[in-house]
Specification:
Number of strands: 11
Bound molecules: glutamine
Largest sheet: 8 strands, mixed
Strand content: 5-15%
Distance between the termini: 12 Å
Structural class: alpha/beta
Strand order of the largest sheet: 4-6-5-10-11-9-7-8
Radius of gyration: 21 Å
Length: about 500
């Protein structure tokens, strides 16, 4: 079979269970595609071919023995922010280029327990700071829809690998849009779960009160399969929540679009810099949902202007604290020939971290320093609460809130936006993290240059099933999620 990479996760699951193909065949198929096509896409930092084939053989044995789960034998790519035992876990940084993790992240361990086959680790902005994946020590990843454009970030490797069909689905993380924005730029479905739904254990920390892992795939149905593996309480993560997990696959047809009240925030559609094609495609998708029985309700989200400044104080503040552990002593990069301890710290950190990471450590350290703490950090925390309350008030009258995932489609590689221009591109995603809410991106068409546009739906706490089922029903009625970039159509 040459088109195994065109099958959905459900079709892969059924094909494996029905012995139409083996996990070894499927895994070899993907490894061949990676070897041939990833020279152009550059989505993988590490390909774990040998381990993948061993896992595939074990999966085939388990399927024969009748001990398989729905996902046994299905391949996956992990964002290089999830620790993988015995395998390099770089977080896209020179700092961790030599780091072989001694343990698995909970998300990775759960994937292994479910029988998933790890194809490898995929590229990302350094320590998940960025919106293009260009901030990686390993260089830029290409957008499969147009190789001279970025796939978005920070989970750009995950998005590019799935969009080029170099993995059936992938894990990502979202601190300020890093699942939703690359999903939008690459024409994928990506879910950022409620804070606390997915364990952060073994997920390299950027901003701990915002970081959350989630699935990236072609469709809501594919994401639901991966959510069934990723979600759940973990005693090793004190912020993971002890709350029953839904069966996201079984719930896909649960909540009907008919009668759904979709909030349209006035402020979101008046943002300067909102691209006309993006606006048009998002509005068309909302019209489609309306035809399917949803009601569009105009709402106010008055705190919109505060999103970027609030996020860009809180996230760097937490980052400056989290990244203090990289000291050149315990693990990671160490500068050569230090003259004393101070020199070791300074040069290890100056040489090991890239420019954007250093910028954020500086901003964060400043915001947390005595004298500025109340004026910046504490103030930002207060505004954060107001942003959350703004959403909760909106959810009194609507079920979900619609927004673009990003004001533009994918930037050109090397576009070299200033940091502030780059940060403004996060306007539609970061408030969701500040509030801890779940949100999903779904592909809804293309701009004039044939680059994908995404619709974001934001839900109330723990509404992952609802978000997935609304998008699933939209995807039953439309075919944007079935479109493939030219490179994905190539055979290996
Ligand atoms: N663009 C956001 C940032 O640079 C993305 C962060 C994320 O979600 N990891 O902080």
């Amino acid at each position: 079979m040459t088109d195994l990479h065109r099958l959905s996760i459900r079709e892969l699951s059924e094909g494996l269970a029905g012995a139409k193909f083996s996990s070894r065949e499927l895994t070899e198929h993907y490894l061949k595609r990676i070897a041939k096509l990833d020279t152009q896409v550059k989505s993988y930092v590490t390909v774990t071919a040998e381990q993948a084939l061993a896992q595939a053989d074990a999966a085939d044995a388990s399927i024969k023995a009748g001990t398989a789960t729905a996902l046994t034998g299905v391949p996956i790519a992990h964002k290089d922010i999830f620790c993988t035992q015995g395998i390099k876990t770089s977080a896209g940084s020179k700092m961790l280029d030599n780091f072989i993790s001694p343990y698995d992240a909970t998300v990775v361990a759960k994937g292994k327990a479910a029988g998933l086959v790890t194809l490898g680790k995929v590229n990302m902005d350094e320590f998940a700071m960025g919106s293009t994946s260009e901030n990686s020590f390993y260089g830029a990843t290409a957008n499969p829809w147009n190789l001279s454009h970025v796939p978005g970030g920070s989970s750009g490797g995950s998005a590019a690998a799935v969009a080029a069909d170099l993995a059936p689905f992938a894990t990502g993380t979202d601190t300020g849009g890093s699942i939703r924005q690359p999903a939008s730029f690459c024409g994928l479905t990506g879910l950022k779960p409620t804070y606390g739904r997915v364990s952060r254990f073994g997920m390299i920390a950027y901003a701990s009160s915002l970081d959350q892992g989630g699935p990236m795939a072609h469709s809501a149905e594919d994401c639901a399969y991966l959510m069934n593996v990723m979600a759940g309480h973990d005693a090793k993560d004190s912020t993971s929540v002890e709350k029953d997990v839904d069966d996201y696959v079984a719930n896909l047809n649960g909540k009907a679009v008919k009668g759904l009240r979709i909030g349209i925030p006035k402020q979101y559609f008046n943002v300067a810099g909102l691209d006309a094609d993006v606006k048009a495609r998002v509005e068309e998708s909302l019209k489609k949902l309306e035809e399917m029985g949803a009601t569009l309700v105009e709402i106010d989200l008055n705190m919109t202007e505060a999103y970027v400044p609030t996020y860009y104080l809180i996230a760097p503040a937490e980052a400056s604290s989290n990244l203090s552990r990289y000291d050149g002593v315990r693990y990671g990069y160490r500068a050569d020939n230090p003259v004393d301890l101070m020199d070791l710290y300074k040069r290890s950190r100056s040489e090991g971290f890239g420019a954007e990471v250093q910028r954020r450590i500086l901003i964060g350290t400043y915001a947390l320093s005595a004298g500025y703490y109340d004026a910046y950090y504490v103030k930002a925390q207060k505004v954060r609460r107001l942003i959350q309350q703004d959403f909760l008030k909106a959810f009194e009258s609507v079920d979900v809130i619609a927004a673009p995932a990003a004001p533009t489609t994918a930037y050109k590689i090397g576009a070299n936006l200033s940091p502030v221009e780059m940060y403004l591109g996060d306007i539609y995603t970061i408030a969701v993290n500040l509030a801890g809410l779940p949100a999903i991106n779904a592909p809804v068409g293309f701009d004039k240059d044939n680059l994908p546009v995404g619709l974001q739906l934001i839900g109330n706490y723990w509404s992952e099933s609802q978000l997935l089922s609304v998008v699933h029903q939209y995807q039953q009625a439309t075919d944007w999620h079935t479109k493939r970039a030219a490179i994905a159509e190539e055979n290996a």
